[in-house]
């Protein structure tokens, strides 16, 4: 125990250089006036068509394979075109006028969200 009291303090391993200070300082008032001087530009909303954006749809592998097979048989150039053809055929045969109106209203809601 007495040995602990007689120990000399360890030498600092890292020697620090002179204290460095910034050449310029700023105040919060300076920043606020600079922000107020910058004129605000009106935000331009990018008109990216939601129809051009690609997304994925979860379907069974068998459904995916059927779609790819129909595209391979040259029924359409892409799966998107094939699905559009299927929608058109389904609407012309199985959907009434009232259901078409309801569908159009729902589609307008989805388009307005994008």
Number of helices: 5
Oligomer: single chain
Report the structural category: mainly alpha
Number-wise, the strands total 0
Largest sheet: none
N-to-C order of helices and strands: HHHHH
The geometry reads as elongated
Instruction: Give average pLDDT, whole number.
Output: 80
Tell me the β content. Answer: under 5%
Q: Helicity, in percent? A: 40-55%
Low-confidence stretches: none
Distance, first to last CA: 76 Å
Rg of Cα set: 35 Å
Overview of this structure, please?
This protein has 114 residues and is an all-alpha fold. It contains five helices and no strands. The longest helix has 17 residues, at 97-113. It is elongated. It starts with a helix and ends with a helix. The mean pLDDT is 80.
Summarize the structure.
This protein is mostly helical and 114 residues long.
List keywords for this structure.
single chain; about 110 residues; mainly alpha; 5 helices; elongated
Fold blueprint:
Blueprint: H1 2-6, H2 28-37, H3 61-72, H4 79-94, H5 97-113
């Amino acid at each position: 125990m007495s040995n602990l009291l007689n120990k000399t303090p360890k030498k600092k391993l890292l020697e620090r250089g002179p204290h460095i200070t910034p050449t310029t300082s700023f105040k919060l008032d300076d920043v606020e006036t600079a922000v107020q001087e910058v004129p605000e530009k009106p935000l331009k909303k990018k008109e990216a068509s939601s129809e051009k954006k690609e997304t994925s749809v979860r379907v069974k592998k068998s459904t995916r394979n059927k779609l790819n097979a129909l595209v391979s048989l040259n029924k359409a150039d892409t799966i998107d075109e094939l699905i559009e053809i299927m929608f058109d055929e389904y609407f012309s045969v199985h959907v009434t006028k009232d259901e078409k109106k309801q569908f159009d209203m729902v589609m307008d809601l989805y388009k307005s969200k994008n």
